[in-house]
Amino acid sequence: MSTKRHAEYKWDAKSIRALRQYMSLSQQQMSERLGIRQQTVSEWETGMYEPRGGMCTLLTMVAERAGFKPTYLSESEAPNWHAHPLYQLNLKPRALKALRQAGIETVSQALEQLAKGEDTLLDIPDFGQRSLEKLKQALRKHGLIY
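User: That's the sequence. What structure does it adopt?
Assistant: Structure tokens below.
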């Protein structure tokens, strides 16, 4: 039996949603993987409830296996946004998956593509105009574009 301990994360609404989006899963898919109801995932993501005990451990194990690091930035850390993964911008799972498949995983990589022109992003399969607008909205929110 392994005695390896997993890091303990604080699983709040933002970190649970970020994990699900990082894994490009719907709430239903996430619930099936965890063996819980979809409504429970929704309640966690809205902050109505928080996971406890064994479910926190399970979320931590799933996060570690997926390579997810649940970190969030305060407003004072905005200049460092460039190095952070795109999932922290809270984009839709389908958009994140499309960008990841195109090799774009960080905010900095997305900004580079945007600087080349919107068409470079729109040429990515499954990344449409709505996804582009949501990406630009998130980048504006953090002061990365105007």
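Residues 13-66 form a domain with the 434 Repressor (Amino-terminal Domain) fold (CATH 1.10.260.40).
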